[in-house]
Specification:
single chain, 311 residues, alpha/beta, Rossmann fold, N-(1-d-carboxylethyl)-l-norvaline Dehydrogenase, domain 2, 2 domains, eleven-stranded mixed sheet, 11 helices, 11 strands, binds NADPH dihydro-nicotinamide-adenine-dinucleotide phosphate, binds ketopantoate, NADP
Length: 311
């Protein structure tokens, strides 16, 4: 089947999954939105609206269902769930997806592990440079910062180019990235800053762009984390990482980082794949002292989460 005719199964009906479903439907693609952690729902249509930066609204009717309705999924699988759901999703989908490629649109380090260890034939990793937030149950506000690169975890650049053509839309723009690991690390470091500091200060993403003191704490975390990345053979420039952080801060001013949204809604956060994982990697490198502040911020988020979550 030609890639452009393939069904795109978006798994995870959250802020990113719903916005992408609208953009792809508007671009004329065949889209099914599948719930990430809910099974047995009645297939139905939802009218979803997305507020865009220019004051326009993108909207579409989206077919919503759950994975258990599909004994076989043949198409492109785009995973937009929270990454801690990956082990359950990978084991549920194992053996049901044939040669369908899996594209992960998630934050964090090593989030693809559940799919690689379950031998999915093609796995691609997207680093999202966009922000999406609910403003009502079926309404979102979407703000792109820049193009979102996708790289190969397992597969080929040729197949990736065809996948990106299928995912082509005007709002959430993707590009092929030959060397994705430095970008995955850069974004994980940026998220380790945003996803800890913003919820602790109970403020929006614009804080680093607005406030010099917040920016200087961000720099401390970035310096720590790029030391860990360097020990893994990933060489990053701290000034460049700060520049990207400030661009995201400016372009998503007013938006709340996903971890802050999770805490407000008493949901589990993804901090384990950010500060906590980077600190664990430093520990494996016998360089625990490198991530003292990064780990402390991660632990404060874990504590805030434990205090706010219902027992
Ligand atoms: N929102 C944003 O601005 C950005 C988000 N990201 C990343 O994109 C990914 C999706 O984020 P976002 O859409 O904001 O998240 P949301 O919390 O809005 O939605 C995530 C979806 O994950 C699913 N989910 C939650 N818990 C589990 C679980 N235990 N098992 C399986 N699935 C689960 C749910 O799917 P369902 O309801 O269908 O069951 C939920 O709707 C995350 O990795 C996030 O870090 C990256 C950049 C920006
Ligand atoms: C930093 C940001 C806004 C960039 O996409 C993000 O990753 C998030 O909201 O989770």
């Amino acid at each position: 089947m030609q890639n452009s005719k393939k069904t795109i199964y978006i798994i995870g009906a959250g802020a990113i999954g719903k916005a992408l479903a609208v953009f792809l439907t508007q671009a004329g693609k065949k889209v099914v939105l599948l719930r990430g952690h809910v099974h047995g729902i009645t297939a139905h249509v939802e009218h979803i609206e997305v507020e865009l930066r220019d004051g326009q609204t993108a909207e579409a009717d989206i077919a919503v269902s759950s994975m258990d309705h599909y004994p076989h999924l043949d198409g492109i699988l785009v995973i937009t769930t929270k990454s801690y759901g990956n082990p359950q999703i990978a084991s549920f989908l194992k053996g049901k997806t044939g040669n369908s490629p899996v594209v992960l649109l998630q934050n964090g380090l090593n989030v693809e592990a559940a799919f690689t260890s379950n031998a999915f034939p093609e796995i691609y990793r997207c680093v999202l440079f966009a922000s999406s937030q609910y403003t009502a149950e079926l309404r979102l506000r979407f703000m792109p910062a820049s193009v979102s690169p996708i790289g190969v975890v397992k597969g080929s650049l040729e197949n990736l180019a065809a996948i990106i053509e299928t995912l082509d839309n005007r709002q959430l723009v993707f590009k092929v990235e030959e060397t994705i690991q430095p970008i995955i690390w850069t974004k994980a470091i940026i998220n380790s800053v945003f996803n800890s500091i913003c919820p602790l200060l109970e403020t929006d993403n614009g804080i680093f762009y607005r406030n010099q003191d917040a920016q200087s704490i961000a720099r401390t975390i970035i310096d720590e984390c790029i030391g860990v990345a360097a020990n893994e053979g990933i060489l990053l420039d701290a000034d460049q990482v700060v520049k990207q952080l400030l661009l995201i801060s400016k372009t998503s001013e007013g938006q709340l980082i996903s971890t802050y949204q999770d805490l407000l809604h008493k949901r589990k956060t993804e901090i384990e794949t950010l500060n906590i994982t980077i600190a664990a990697i430093a520990d494996q490198q016998h360089k625990k002292e490198l991530t003292r502040n990064t780990l402390l911020l991660g632990k404060l988020i874990q504590l805030k989460s434990a205090i706010t979550m219902p027992a």
